[in-house]
Amino acid sequence: MSESALPPSLAAIREDFLALSVQDRLQLLLEFSDTLPVVPEELVDPDAWERVEECQSPVFITVDTTPAEVMVYASAPEESPTTRGFASILVQGLHGMNPQQVLAVPPDFPLQLGLQNAVSMLRLRGMSGMLWRIKRQVDEGLAELAATK
Amino acid sequence: MSFPSDPSPELAGYAHPERLVTTEWLEAHKGTEGLVVLESNEDVLLYDTGHIPGAIKIDWHTELNDPVVRDYLEGEAFADLMSRKGISRDDTIVIYGDKSNWWAAYTLWVFTLFGHQDVRLLNGGRDAWVAQGRPLTKDVPTPPATTYPVVERDDSQIRAFKDDVLSHLGKPLIDVRSPEEYSGERTHMPAYPEEGALRGGHIPTAKSIPWATAAEADGRFKSHGDLVDIYLTQQGFEPGEDIITYCRIGERSSHTWFVMKYLLGFTNAKNYDGSWTEWGSAVRVPIATGDQPGEAP
């Protein structure tokens, strides 16, 4: 576990989860699911959405990268609250970070939330897949920015 | 069986119609003493967003598996789980879930390993119930604990292990994964090689029949006539034959196992729960690639 490397916003989310019993962690995940920010249609080009294949439920993410800030958008159906919860943690937790901070998020962050016993390792891999795809899109965004300079 | 079967004509053609109930039947019978309704989903939070009134949540991942060994609970732990959920040995159980009942079928399969006598699926699962506008609630029932007997799991009848599959090669075998997984184009989920298998392809001689072949778009099983046409006429399987189904970890293949066992009446149908995550990483087992079944070695 690379706990020292966690940015404050993600560290706070982790502390919130770890302070709860295993059952209550599920309820907190449900709250995240309920508060996944709605993406205004005009904000994202429909072709920009990338499907997260690691999740069996359909979840799509897209990332806007500027030198100063990374904006992550995610969309997942209401019938997939766990997947929505994972997406919401990342969207809210990464909010306001710059590209370097996002790229530095430890890939095992999803495993630091104490959810293994509550949701199972297999399901948590969906969240790791989202994080990996977000970082890859940030990398691509930085490369595009460098190319258009 | 403690409850009479659902007499709906929709189910009458199946080999074992007593293994299915319709949404109408469940709505009419739920709440009756001796009938337990269980929700088993891929999504561990879905039950909490609303479920059939009186239904109890059961989770395949976190409750039916041994926490350490890749195996299911032993008899004592299963009895304890049943007791905590208020289930008696002679209760009729109806299971339903998301994703066309994948995980509901997997849970039914595990209950069957423990010889629970009367366990049924809700045809169409959660989606059918919701689509018909039937009632949902967030109230979580707290049934009093029961005494459930400790019954040792019987893996000999409906469960196949890797060695069983090896000695089965040449007999009917169904791979229910996607065509890309079957051909070997796709070995695992990108970025997560440890989750998938080290090699891609399929077990030689396995026919590729994706699980959804057996399902209608609305999540219900296809009619008996359609299933006969697909699995018996087109594929040439016969209900007297031994048959094994597999997928990646055994959930999608539980769906097809249910079809073979209870809807088409194969007396000796088994699910290979080790599936591709075991086979595709095992040393020296034969593998075929491409879209043809391949030969038994």
Could you walk me through the main structural features you see in this protein, from its secondary elements to its overall organization?
The complex is a heterodimer of chains A (149) and B (297). Chain A has helices at residues 8-18, 22-34, 81-94, 99-103, 116-119, 121-147, and strands at 50-51, 60-65, 70-75. With 149 residues, chain A is mainly alpha-helical. In chain A, helix 3 crosses helix 6 (121-147). Chain A is globular, with a radius of gyration of 15 Å. Chain A starts with 7 loop residues before the first helix and ends with a helix. Chain B is 29% helix and 10% strand. Chain B contains 11 helices and 9 strands. Chain B has helices at residues 9-12, 23-29, 60-64, 75-84, 102-113, 125-131, 162-168, 179-183, 224-234, 251-263, 275-279, and strands spanning 20-21, 35-39, 56-57, 92-96, 119-122, 173-175, 207-208, 243-246, 269-271. In chain B, the strands form 2 sheets. Chain B has a 5-stranded parallel beta sheet. Chain B has a 4-stranded parallel beta sheet with strand order 7-6-8-9, with helices on one face. In chain B, helix 10 (251-263) links the parallel strand 8 and strand 9. Chain B starts with 8 loop residues before the first helix and ends in an 18-residue tail after the last helix. In chain B, 45% of the residues are buried. At the A-B interface, helix 2, helix 3, helix 5 and helix 6 of A face loops of B.
Describe the SSE topology:
The complex is a heterodimer of chains A (149) and B (297).
Chain A: H1 8-18, H2 22-34, E1 50-51, E2 60-65, E3 70-75, H3 81-94, H4 99-103, H5 116-119, H6 121-147
Chain B: H1 9-12, E1 20-21, H2 23-29, E2 35-39, E3 56-57, H3 60-64, H4 75-84, E4 92-96, H5 102-113, E5 119-122, H6 125-131, H7 162-168, E6 173-175, H8 179-183, E7 207-208, H9 224-234, E8 243-246, H10 251-263, E9 269-271, H11 275-279
Parallel strand pairs in B: 1-5, 2-3, 2-4, 4-5, 6-7, 6-8, 8-9
Helix pairs in contact in B: 5-10
